[in-house]
Write a sequence for this structure.
């Protein structure tokens, strides 16, 4: 018998790959909002149903983690749904894309970003700047097709300098850790032959008009978040600072296995979640449920994510 999970997810994945875009009008894959004079567009790339090992949170009781997941996703037992949502920022002078989606190269259930970008009326050649939060495949694979062709042909590509230094190290593909070796090989596939067109940035540097890079290290060595400001409005784009609201916003001290340096990731998470709640600025997070924007509010023992209406 098909499990409930298969019934819920498989048809959507099949439909996404088989049907032409117009039939998707009932389920818009992009959402627009304003920030000052900027126009922002959240672009849906699909959902990554990540299998969870029993101890995938290193420093929490398995029962507490399972309870948090069951509360958030009553029908799921063995996977954690991580939505993938990239953000397009039109500053009025520049079209800036923050992270690029998975391009269907990570899992079958994700890869709709380009279609939704087209539905939003933007062709990839129009993108002026691509900002990368970190070098995991679900954030950089959209830079190239499976055949290795560049997608955003006119864009300046900007990446965290510390991310580049770590993942492009020539010794890394030989790492004894399989995931690290695999990600390093993928980073070389994406960036190797376009290195001269890539600009590296450091935390606190303005990387596009109104957009400043922020140190959010820990998930990966150079992981960056971004502060976007226009007029007297601003927001924080968190990347993978917290990959699931019910787990890592509610329990910011929990260290998932996918955070490479757990303690540093917790420090980054506490610093930026505190900033978002204290300054009452909205956030967008790459893996929160689409359209992935909302407010962070302080709650006992952590924070709550309140999705934007
Ligand atoms: Zn990610």
């Amino acid at each position: 018998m098909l499990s409930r999970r298969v019934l819920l997810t498989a048809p959507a994945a099949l439909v996404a790959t088989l049907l032409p875009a117009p039939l998707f009008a009932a389920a818009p894959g992009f959402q627009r909002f304003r920030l000052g004079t900027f126009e922002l567009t959240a672009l849906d790339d699909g959902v990554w149903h990540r299998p969870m090992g029993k101890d995938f949170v290193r420093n929490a009781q398995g029962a507490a983690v399972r309870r948090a997941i069951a509360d958030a996703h009553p029908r799921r037992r063995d996977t954690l749904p991580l939505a993938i949502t990239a953000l397009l920022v039109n500053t009025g002078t520049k079209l800036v894309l923050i992270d690029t989606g998975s391009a269907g190269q990570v899992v079958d259930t994700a890869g709709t970003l380009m279609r939704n970008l087209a539905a939003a009326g933007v062709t990839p050649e129009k993108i002026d700047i691509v900002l990368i939060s970190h070098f995991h495949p679900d954030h950089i694979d959209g830079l190239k097709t499976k055949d290795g062709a560049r997608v955003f042909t006119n864009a300046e590509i900007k990446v965290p300098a510390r991310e580049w230094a770590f993942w492009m190290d020539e010794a890394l593909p030989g790492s004894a850790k399989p995931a690290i070796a695999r990600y390093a090989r993928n980073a070389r596939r994406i960036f190797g032959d376009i290195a001269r067109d890539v600009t590296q940035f450091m935390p606190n540097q303005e990387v596009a008009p109104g957009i400043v890079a922020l140190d959010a290290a820990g998930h990966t060595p150079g992981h960056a978040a971004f502060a976007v400001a226009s007029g007297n409005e601003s927001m924080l784009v968190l990347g993978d600072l917290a990959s699931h609201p019910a787990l890592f916003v509610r329990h910011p001290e929990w260290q998932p296995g996918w955070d490479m340096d757990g303690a540093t990731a917790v420090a980054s998470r506490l610093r930026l979640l505190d900033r978002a709640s204290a300054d009452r600025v909205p956030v967008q997070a790459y893996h929160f449920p689409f359209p992935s924007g909302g407010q962070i509010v302080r709650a006992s023992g952590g924070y709550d994510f309140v999705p934007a209406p």
The radius of gyration is 18 Å.
